[in-house]
Amino acid sequence: MPNILLVEDDKALSRNLAKYLETEEFSVTKAFGQTDGMKAFESEQFDCVLLDLSLEDGNGFSVCSQIKAKYDIPVIFLTASADESCTVAGFEIGADDYIIKPFRPRELVARIKNAMRKYGFASSAQPLQCGNICIDPVKGIVTKDGGEISMSALEYRLLLLFFSNKGKLLSRDRLADELWTISGEFVEDNTLNVYIKRLRDKIEDDPQNPRILKTVRGLGYKAVDE
Predict the structure, then answer these.
(1) Which of 50, 95, 124, 129 has the fewest CB atoms within 10 Å of its CB?
(2) What does the alpha-carbon distance between residue 29 and residue 145 come to, in Å, rounded to a whole number?
């Protein structure tokens, strides 16, 4: 599970954001200032840092500089400042991304994963198994009974979402949002039906009676391991 350091002195925002990230399978350590943030590195190893620009006892630029001087991990600024000079300064000292508040939580998650992927985090990912289907996140391939299945990027990401949340109900809205994030286009209800059918045609022994990708009528879908 990726370990995130969140350096944010707005305690309400920090608390709510940490809860959301934990539902997305991240471990979150909260720090409320520059001193707390740097102390955290003495006791834990982190995979990514989310960093506010304005802190009670310092500023995010200083924290980012100290982190980048010692650690090879991504740093993402979360800030209310849309000033171009601040954005440029952030990137010049090594920040990997710069996100303006308010932001969409799912977009943040996507950008965290993208930043970590660039640092090779995916290389430690474990295969995900459900029934006779296996996803290898390192190689980016899906196999059925050991044989590789050809999948589009959208199909792969959607299946990865199901397997990463095995046994959990995923609403149609959540799945449509995932497809929209990947494709950048509005996703109609029928489009989701098409992709669910495509996945079942590829992974199920009998697509008409699915044993892996189950429908929860009126609510959504979930991956199960029977």
Answers:
(1) 124
(2) 39
Give percent above pLDDT 90 in the chain: 34
* Per-residue confidence (pLDDT) for residue 223, from 0 to 100: 95
State the Cα–Cα distance between residues 219 and 223, nearest whole angstrom.
Answer: 14
Rounded Cα gap, residues 96 and 112, in angstroms? 10
pLDDT of residue 203: 97
* Dist. CA 115–CA 186, nearest whole Å: 25
- pTM greater than the 0.70 cutoff: no
DSSP per position, the chain: --EEEEE-S-HHHHHHHHHHHHHTT-EEEEE-SHHHHHHHHHH---SEEEEESEETTEEHHHHHHHHHHH----EEEEES---HHHHHHHHHTT-SEEEESS--HHHHHHHHHHHHHHTTGGGGPPPEEETTEEEETTTTEEEETTEEE---HHHHHHHHHHHHTTTS-EEHHHHHHHHHHHH-S---HHHHHHHHHHHHHHH-SSTTS-SSEEEETTTEEEE---
d(CA 131, CA 188) in angstroms, rounded, equals 30
Beta bridge partners of residue 55, listed in sequence order:
58
What digits encode the pLDDT tens for the residues 134-174? 998 767 789 999 999 998 877 887 898 899 888 999 998 88
Q: What are phi and psi of 74, to 5 degrees?
A: -75, 145
